[in-house]
Known about the structure:
Elements: H1 63-82, H2 100-119, H3 129-132, H4 142-163, H5 178-199, H6 208-222, H7 227-230, E1 243-248, E2 258-262, E3 269-272, E4 279-283, H8 285-292, E5 304-307, H9 309-319
Parallel strand pairs: 1-4
Antiparallel strand pairs: 1-2, 2-3, 4-5
Helix pairs in contact: 1-4, 1-5, 2-4, 2-5, 5-6, 6-8
Amino acid sequence: MNSGMDHDTNSGTDHDTNPGTDRDTNPGTDPDMTSATDHDTNPGTDPDMTSAMDRDTNSAMDYAGHCAEIVHQADLLASCLTEHATDLTTTVPSCPDWNLAQLLRHLGETHRWVEDLVRTRATEPPPDTALRVLPRDTAQGPAEVAAWLTEGARLLADTLRSSGPDAEIWTPLPSGSPRFFARRMAHETVMHRADATLALGRDFTIDRRVALDTLDEWMELGSLPEMFDFHPDRRELLGPGRILHFHATDTPPEAAADWIVDLTGDTLAWRRAQEPAAVSVRAPLTDLLLLIYGRVPADNDTFEITGDAELLEFWLARVLFG
């Protein structure tokens, strides 16, 4: 879920990877979800610390939409596996320590991990070994894996719907509720579908509303004050004049698909706006999503970069997540 970021990809042995360089989305305690067991956060005890990530009022999608999207994205991923001959030993370039079987196992186990947490109204994170220790080999074929994956996605969505959005449960952030996990798991599934699709050399497409919501969540998580506790090196990003602007070139004006990342204050900040910036990046929305989530590099013709390209690379390297 940090989907981003802790992927343990050793074949059967556990090694946590640095969330500053990893691409996975472990549903753990770190706001960018790099550990499920580092420290407990009591749900519902501090209303002043309620995160925007725990409410769908600031989201382009609502709770029901997030639940439905978990299933939809899993179905799309399953179709990708079964429509053509798929080699599950294929290396996943955006998660280079994993092959396709490990990526899919991680995603399916993550769905089941969250389902168990929500169904039992857990007040602390359950053990997460199954989504971290991922054997490289699998005896299952693509069709079996696809069926297992969609089964877990449906089970998770059904449990989220049954619990309702406001049940008190453990989440990586205070004042936790299923709203957090519905949104996080929708986008976890989106990005791991992207990983699989790109690994298989196929085109990744996504509905505009889902892409906007996925980018907004990334911005919200990355700007949480708690991030400095988990990633002190991100303070190095702050400095006068350090503003980044991202613009989606293929969206209508009403989509307001402009993001400002403001590093000029004491904390990381973001907003939907068009403003002067030290560096601006223009590209189609899906490409911006893949860039910001660390799935593709900035040095290709897809991206029109104006201004301080070194600041862009510095920022991307420090906030890699998802």
